[in-house]
Amino acid sequence: MIKKLAFLLVLTVIFTAQARLLVMTHSHNRPDFIKIQYHTFKKFLKDDYEFIVFNDAPSDNMRQQIEQMCNKYGLRCIRIPQEIHTYAYLHRLPRERFNHPCVRCANVVQYSLNEYGLAHDDLVAIIDSDMFLVKEFSIRDYMNQKDLAGVHQTRDNNVEYIWNGLIFFDMRTLPNKPLINFNCGEVNNTPVDVGGQMHHYLKHTPEARVRFIQQDYVANHAHKSIAMLLNMGFSHAMAQFIRANPPVVELYADGAFVHYRSGTNWDRKSARYHLDKTVVFNQLIERLLTK
Questions:
Q1: Confidence class for position 263, pLDDT limits 50, 70, 90
Q2: CATH number for the domain formed by residue range(s) 11-213
């Protein structure tokens, strides 16, 4: 009887440890963003969660910097096997280079799902390395009995899919999980970016309860006064940030998340572009965390 109770206790501990929100991000070359995500999740995310960083650094030096940042904040840091970028880990078209930014991103998103996310017995969130929570938010409440929440993308030839930058799954109820595929490539002879192959999931799983996450842009509101922005529900810190109008910054889920965008510099902007943008962005984060 004692052994049976002990066994049940162990199962309860295991279940309790696993049954919480799993937040996963993928870090390539901006360890400073890990620090910001850690602090903003700690301040604003209202759910019980574990934050995991998948380390996809292309060099040993950057790998160590990411590991050091994770160690500083007690985060689980999982190394992406770099060999998955040397062959077709996911299906590749002849024109696709194994180390193209979209291909690398698709590989690491799918790897984290295959190895950890799909088997998790609760909610799973995937968030870009330069996506940040900026006000109180509960992913569990936001899901509201949905199986999947993500940003809707459309392309020509009736292509629609879920973008990889901000996704929530309920792995307990999500149907047809073997079809989850965040690869890029082509669908219906139409080029798609990361997440494009989710077109097939949406098409073949009509029973999935999907919520599309609302998208907006800072530039859409930069002309508005501070008072107008406050009346719209933005914090004073966010209102100041919006008025500064940094280039190409996106808002998601009614302004709960801010996407710095191109944080890995996949589109090869100048060093000055990112220096100036980072200064304005860090001012926002400092205001948010010290208020």
A1: low
A2: 3.90.550.10
